[in-house]
Automatic annotation (TrEMBL):
Pfam families found in the cross-reference section: PEMT
Locations listed in the record: Endomembrane system
Predominant location: membrane
Keyword check for Transmembrane helix: yes
The protein, known as: Isoprenylcysteine carboxylmethyltransferase family protein
Keyword Flavoprotein: no
Keyword annotations from UniProtKB, A to Z: Membrane, Transmembrane, Transmembrane helix
Topology with respect to the bilayer: Multi-pass membrane protein
């Protein structure tokens, strides 16, 4: 029996990528739940991988800073005569500078095994969520194409 309007697969009969990613994350989380964390980190995750992931975060932020160039501002309000950038790292994330900062902070918290730094990372994540919501309302008022860009691009990470 076929379910009316069911769309479980893509055109070539394969499961949708979002479905595969969600189920993969689910099974990964269930697996690590039953593993001893100390044993897991020694066997499966080389200690320095967090260091290298942090470097990737720095690189993402650096590339985004270079792409913004003269349009860069530390404040959420867009600069006068600014341009909406939707290419490069901005094609993957609406806020790649924040993405890089978050990757750096979380990865170094794990690398150092520092709960205090992890709490600070969570606080900055909460701040960035709030700040980007405010910033995006300003960007929607400034750029006609921002709503379309927002619908196609993830806030911090790519949309599937």
């Amino acid at each position: 029996m076929r379910i009316k309007n069911a769309n479980f697969e893509n055109k070539n009969g394969m499961p949708k990528i979002k479905d595969v990613v969600l189920v993969s994350i689910q099974f990964f989380l269930m697996l690590i739940f039953f593993l001893n964390l100390e044993w897991f980190s020694i066997i499966f995750i080389e200690h320095y991988i967090w260091f290298y992931i942090g470097i990737v975060g720095v690189a993402i932020s650096g590339i985004a800073l270079l792409q913004l160039n003269v349009y860069l501002s530390p404040f959420p309000t867009p600069k006068a005569n600014s341009k909406l950038i939707t290419t490069g790292v901005f094609k993957l994330s609406r806020h790649p500078i924040y993405t890089g900062i978050l990757i750096f902070m979380f990865s170094f918290s794990f690398w150092l095994g520092d709960g205090y730094k992890l709490c600070i990372s969570l606080a900055i994540l909460a701040l960035f969520i709030y700040k980007t919501s405010y910033e995006e309302s300003l960007l929607e008022d400034t750029f006609d194409d921002y709503k379309i860009y927002k619908s196609k691009t993830g806030r911090f990470f790519p949309k599937f």
